[in-house]
């Protein structure tokens, strides 16, 4: 298909062009230019979705350079779903940022956002391991820049920590990819999967890649860089980081795990990953319960939620194709629900902090009376994160539960249910603060209505996902490399 | 699809839409908000009347939405669903009226009425759920929407009560989720009434199915306040009176009891439950809770606390009825679901009136209140006598059928439980009535809000009088098909003839 008809190149070209353009034009031109860019991104995503659902997976070679040499892109059901997810969430965060940041800040925000968006799309669509690396590196730099954007001492320190962790992760990944290239002479995912053989080189490579990606995804116990970075950043940035950025390395991990059928060969490693996930759920939930600052509660909740996604790895078992399919669906749905719920929750939390002017939980007293809409947005996101029905989070947990039953791994059921209670505890703890009525007459600032509505929209999205789960699940079940490699 | 298949969805939507509109209205638009709220309640009642006519013709409206592959959200109206849906829509109207009067001039009404409607929407969903999955969704939604009502006052006591409430109900929810998910893992999606499927499963995995039964009943038992899971109910008394009325009469405890009815009759089937010996432990637990609740009620000095323990005891009558094998026991249990709702809502309305009009919270403060608030006191008396089981108030009918059912099922010991509980009921209600009517007034009222010797304001008084009259009417006109008893008989007939 040529360049004009396929939306795939546009999904990379527009954000890159947007990044360059918004760096060059005067300040007050940057926002209008970005708005145009956002709409073209949304349109390109919808066109891609239409093409993939009607004509099957799409492949595209940049400038017609074919696979081994050029930049090959592919859009299967999974990639298309992620494109749609990141377009929706990133657009919402972008509009939020537009209303939230001052003109000065906004002007520097746009180039970084566009770089972030380009790298995300690049990762979702990449068909070879080296492009994935390029995407990861670009993503790291954009994300670290955005964290440092809050420009106070704490956020600078957090961003430096984040940078070191992320660079270490990328290095490990690159080393692993280099080893794979040395052993098999190719970088393309498809060719690697075809010629895959379990030699010692591949084992070392997989270990390196896995370690690097776990660090970048902030899987327990490699999560320590995440809470200060996500909790300390400016609100729209926190939302972008928690909802989308950590998903990128997780996505790569998932593709490796399934497409190279690692689950078949290393069942003990699967259990180890599951144990890390369980640790994340319990430790993240416990730490969230002990925070005194609102955004830190939300940030630790991300640590716990990553744990739920990681639980899908031990459930992808070679012996039961049914359990594996359920785990795959449950994991992806969890990821999707988390993207909407967490973005909504961070934005709602940001609005609350804007109102009170203080970041701590105690000053939230009276908020449920003063800002009911905002509390409602926070609550809806909370429902999905707690895994209570009706929400995308509940449906995802249901699928993971069923998969655990099916594969006879009852211990994950215990973890899932305990996690439920723990997350309910930290969400309702925040609620209890907002319902408190104190005598102190405080003055509150009123956030713009658009800020509240964007937060509400994202949270409603995570609830709505509970009613339309069939649709994304059908999408990721379209034929493609992942579906072929599942047992 | 027939036109009436949309009725369940429409009925659910009336409350949801009301909640959405109320949330969006500004705080000071009181009249518009009340209009929306009462309008929705009336529309819902009309829709329920249509639904009753459809169901009487043995047609069961049903609507489905696929939420996960192979798993549907089902809204279905059968005769049992009508029983609960009818109760909650009638009581929604009167509780809303009452709440409008009760919360006059108090802050945060938008939030209150929004969650109030959401809470009723959840009970509608619970009654119209067509499978356990749908039931679970609305059951959890009920927990979420009642929490803001319990902590409504925002003081330290209510926040603490809210925490206790959540710890109990969310843990119960998790246990229920485990039960529902395990049942689904074994046998796929089982719609209510599809008892042959369960029978086959019990044949294959008898132990597992017993464990699942225990999980389901334990999860539901938390909301139904069965001993030892009843601790949250008296604590939640800090909520405003209309909330307590709603929690005790329709929403939360009934949701649990109704769920147990569904599990026993429409998942496992009454015959199978009986054959497997599931019923006897429930009967023992229910009997113990009946006596224990009454005993604790006797020790309370706070009016609302006494009523709360009375609820603990009375809700277990429903469970006792379920656990007595035979049509008469079933009728007794089901009819008590309605009767207890009518009587208990009356009692809570009256308790609210005592508190709002004269500042009375304790039982010893009630001396001579009968002369000061004659109509409220009369309504209270009707409710109290009904709870004791005196004819012609509705409570008598429930106890009569429970007793007959127990004799029929050769469970004579149940008679002693009923007599014991009636004696205890009399012991904790009659002294209160004596204080109200026969003791002279002791000094000043604690906080007299309305002077010049009038009864409570009409918005508080009328709902109490109406529900009191309804509890008498349910007893007097018990032979009509549209009375609670008539409908319970219809359900039982359809259940046992299956």
What oligomeric state is this?
heterodimer
How many β-strand stretches of chain B?
A: 2
- Uncertain stretches of chain A: none
Please indicate the percent range of residues of chain A in DSSP E strands (runs of 2 or more).
under 5%
Largest interface: A-B, 36 and 38 residues
Quick one: biggest sheet of chain B? 2 strands, antiparallel
Molecular shape of chain A: globular
| Helix content range of chain B | over 70%
Q: What proportion of the residues of chain A is helical, as a percent range?
A: over 70%
Give the radius of gyration of chain B: 21 Å
Element pattern of chain A in H and E: HHEEHHHHHHHHHHHHHHHHHHHH
Strand order of the largest sheet of chain B: 1-2
* Rounded average pLDDT of chain A: 89
> How would you classify the helix and strand content of chain A by structural class?
mainly alpha
Distance between the termini of chain A: 32 Å
Q: In angstroms, what separates the terminal alpha carbons of chain B? A: 25 Å
Structural class of chain B: mainly alpha
Largest sheet of chain A: 2 strands, antiparallel
Radius of gyration of chain A: 21 Å
- Sheet-strand content of chain B, in percent, reads under 5%
Summed up, the helix count of chain A is 22
Commentary on this structure:
- The complex is a heterodimer of chains A (487) and B (498).
- With 487 residues, chain A is mostly helical.
- Chain A has helices at residues 8-24, 27-55, 77-100, 103-125, 129-148, 153-184, 189-194, 200-217, 226-232, 235-259, 262-265, 267-290, 294-310, 312-315, 321-356, 367-370, 372-386, 392-406, 410-435, 449-464, 470-476, 481-485, and strands spanning 58-61, 72-75.
- Chain A has a domain at 264-487.
- Chain A has 22 helices and two strands.
- Chain A has a two-stranded antiparallel sheet.
- The mean pLDDT of chain A is 89.
- By secondary structure, chain B is mostly helical.
- Helices cover 74% and strands 3% of the residues of chain B.
- In chain B, β1 (62-68) and β2 form a beta hairpin.
- Chain B is globular.
- Chains A and B meet through α17, α18 and α19 of A and β1, α5 and α6 of B.
